[in-house]
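User: Please fill in residues for this 104-position structure.
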């Protein structure tokens, strides 16, 4: 699947995507794994895929990794990975994004 999330220059929202688009998330880093994903108040489970809803919605991502390690939250697209956020991991880090679902 091609990448769906488009980064916006002046957040929020942080990203936009067509309403109804399917988005799959992943994690990058030495031992990084997705620990929890919540989209629009609903838990998302492995394989960490959700469907973009119209309007503004909130995406919360919690990643587990070794403290001090470079960590990425990624969108999985056709076998490649697009970095959505990159940071040095600390205990209990959660990333919050606002996504604007746009009617195609």
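Assistant: Residues filled in for all 104 positions:
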């Amino acid at each position: 699947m091609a990448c769906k999330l488009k980064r916006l220059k002046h957040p929020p929202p942080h990203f936009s995507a067509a309403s109804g688009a399917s988005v799959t998330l992943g994690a990058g880093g030495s031992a990084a794994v997705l620990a929890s994903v919540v989209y629009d108040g609903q838990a998302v489970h492995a394989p960490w895929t959700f469907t973009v809803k119209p309007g503004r919605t909130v995406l919360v991502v919690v990643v587990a990794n070794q403290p001090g390690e470079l960590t990425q939250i990624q969108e999985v697209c056709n076998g490649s990975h697009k970095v959505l956020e990159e940071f040095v991991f600390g205990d209990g880090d959660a990333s919050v994004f606002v996504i604007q679902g746009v009617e195609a």
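For context: Residues 6-102 form one domain.
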